[in-house]
TrEMBL record:
A Gene Ontology term for the protein's cellular component: nucleus
Domain of life: Eukaryota
Gene Ontology molecular functions: hydrolase activity; metal ion binding; nuclease activity
Principal place of residence: cytoplasm
Taxon lineage: Eukaryota, Metazoa, Echinodermata, Eleutherozoa, Echinozoa
Cofactors (names): a divalent metal cation
Disordered, as annotated region: 301-323
Compositionally skewed regions (Basic residues) per UniProt: 301-314
Family from the record: Belongs to the HARBI1 family.
Name this protein carries in UniProt: Putative nuclease HARBI1
Keywords: Cytoplasm, Hydrolase, Metal-binding, Nuclease, Nucleus
Amino acid sequence: MAALLHAIQHAAALRRERVFRDRRHPLDLYDDEQMFKLYRFSRQGCLHLINRLSRRIQHSTRRNHALPPSLQVFVALRFFATGSVMDCTSCIHGIHISTTSRTVRRVALALGELRDEVIKFPETMEEVKTAQVDFFNLAGMPNVVGAVDGTHVELHGAPLDDEYIYTNRKGKHSINVQLICNARYKITNVCARWPGSTHDSRVLRNSRIGERFADGELPGILVGDSGYPLQPWLITPLRDPQGNAERNYNRAHCRTRVTIEQLNGQLKNKFRCLMGQGIQMSAPRACDIIIASLTSPKTLKNRNKPSKWNRMKCHTTPQIRTS
């Protein structure tokens, strides 16, 4: 009996005492400028995200000092903003790295559930007309409802069995993300599930948005670079323009399509997890992180200014089709 008591006491002595770290809340520590620098969102933007996600990420119990929804959002935003390894994010918030991993996953899935509410392609007559007028004011291209392009988000690693399909043309592992935006830098469609070896044209051809355009379900046209094939609903630049009319068309096309190029740059500058050495997660989880970043409301600024298309001497008839 004495030996048993001695063994129990010895085991209790060896058991590591639980330590609850001091969790400092960013809302109490930082002003608006510091918060935007650390989390890439203003105070109002962070509060907006917290209000939208609180119900979805609230823990059912406060057992073991469970993280409140507000702190969970800040942990995820810090990871999205820096793209660093998770131990850096865990240190700044006073939590364990395993808790950081679970929190980022939890918030990313919650943001993914808001995808259909935030990312919407114009389908009604009023929405289509507004998109066409906005693009027409840029460079005089009529009937345009969106600019499409693909951007590669690198992966720090890839599955060993399927490594070759994630290797892009630059020899790096990545996810090929297709984005469509309007003239106001608002993302209207995203497809983030294809490995890096997939060509942009194949992604569009096999995406739901491409199928709907091909079937005539959606009005208007898209603008894309020379990597896409010319379609009745997709216009591309001329490879060898002849005459002023064709050169003016290429200039107008370039000024219209540059919105998606600028959006890609703004997006990766805001969420550094999408650039650099790549997302240090498995491919399916990396896709969830990408969708979560794109779903965050009010992520980009509108830098477009109305331009006078007639300065370019475009000979395109200014007609706006609304059906």
